[in-house]
Amino acid sequence: MDIKKEIGSSNTPDFFSKEMIITKKSLNENQLKYTYQKQLISDLDSKHKEWSKFVSS
């Protein structure tokens, strides 16, 4: 019982926002979108490098 009281009364910051609720599904969807966008940017970067070889030749 003493341990629960100590944990509950600690002054550690909250790791969530009290104004905003994000569902696990929404969080996973956003992570997938981010990963997809990151891959697109990586692909575009490699294509630009490839195209620059042809332009400079």
Q: Can you characterise this structure?
A:
The protein contains two helices and no strands. The chain is mainly alpha-helical and 57 residues long.
Brief overview, please?
By secondary structure, the chain is an all-alpha fold. Helix content is 70%, strand content 0%.
Keywords summarizing the entry:
single chain; about 55 residues; mainly alpha; 2 helices; about 70% helix
Strand content: under 5%
Indicate the percent of residues in helices.
Answer: over 70%
Class based on secondary structure composition and strand pairing:
mainly alpha
Uncertain segments of ≥5 residues (pLDDT<50)? Answer: none
So what's the oligomer here? single chain
Reported for the largest beta sheet, the result is: none
The dominant shape is rod-shaped
Radius of gyration: 23 Å
The strand count comes to: 0
- Count of separate DSSP helical elements: 2
- Report the span from N to C terminus: 75 Å
The secondary-structure element order is: HH
Q: Return the average pLDDT rounded to an integer.
A: 76
